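Regression report. Comparing outputs from two consecutive submissions.

Submission 1:
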Amino acid sequence: MPKVSLDIPQELVDDIKVHVGDNKKFVSLADAIRTACRKMLDQLDAIDTRHGRGGQQ
């Protein structure tokens, strides 16, 4: 799996970490970010479909 490095504002990291850990929705910060990316791409595909664009390539 490729590694990606990016800068994220600390406030956003803090907000995400509230949902990370034992008995929470995500097992790690990376898991939360991957899930958010997948959800965003699904939403963009849905928008493309509604507008008659191809969506996924």
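Submission 2:
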Amino acid sequence: MNQESEVLFDVQGCVGLITLNKPKALNALSLNMVVSIHNQLISWASDESIELIVIKADGNRAFCVGGDVRALYDNRGTNYGSEFCGKEYLLNTYLYNYPKPYLALMDGAVMGGGVGVSIHGSHRIVTERTIFAMPETGIGLFPDIGAGWFLPRCPGEIGMYLGLTGHRLNASDCIYTGLADYYIQSEFLEAVVKKLSERNVTRSKINDVLSEFSINGESSDFYKSRNSIDRCFSADSVESIIDRLRKEKSPWGDNIVDIINLKSPTSLKITFKQLRAGALMKRFEEVMAMEYRMATHVFKNNDFFEGIRSVVIDKDGNPNWDPSTLEEVTPSEVDKYFELVDGEPSFN
């Protein structure tokens, strides 16, 4: 293994091991990492000596905080954004359909593109250090990498709540929402991999090993807020959601309104349409095609690059969204983000 590489590949017994290796950058995904992981997974899929895949990350702060948005910002005005998302979404689709067990050790911050290389696996493991979020509406984007598939399939209206607000989940929240399968203390992750590498693996044996190390953890806060979330976020528009939150007349509702009002109005509206549409789609590949179109249109407009400027470049936390209000984002403007684009990859 080349320890200087952004992503490392190794074999431990019957385990193909992927290690994200950019801890100083919180393991943000570059285009090279996306392509390298995809190519390695293709190779391991036909290697009979590899029975399962494990993906983990170096460092204890982050599994992966998403794609390298600085590179996207620096390449604004080019085709780089569409190229990056095309290859990333093809990887997400390949993972969703991967023929071998794929275990993701989601230890630390897991956001955006980091969710994309973990949540579509067969076994998703969270730890006491897990912080899971899809915060894209706060940077002028939308929850992508297949979020149009997995967020609407969370219990009730939790997916819409997460997509619009970017709310951060802990390990117990991830288990409650179905976004993870096992809660294992981080100190035992190496032992899990070692034990799996020493036996002939079947899915039932993997489950046995993971169950041996798993714990229940504390109750999720969603047990307390679920009814309010379902009541408010089942509305038929973002504006109606905000209206219902205000009618709650509670500190919780007022706080959520304040959070939503900080997000890009365009991002909020296209996310709402995306998640409602994704809930009705029968195939994951349909969602990925929709999200590719959305991303390509996003990269042609203001808000994403303004969001990155505000959060990453200048760090002033004061983005100048355009349009600046929900009322200015008309249905016809929203519809444009879902139109076909030239050069779409085939996700089938």
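Expected: both submissions complete independently.
Actual: both completed, but the second showed a warning that disappeared on reload.
Relevant detail on submission 2: The radius of gyration is 20 Å.
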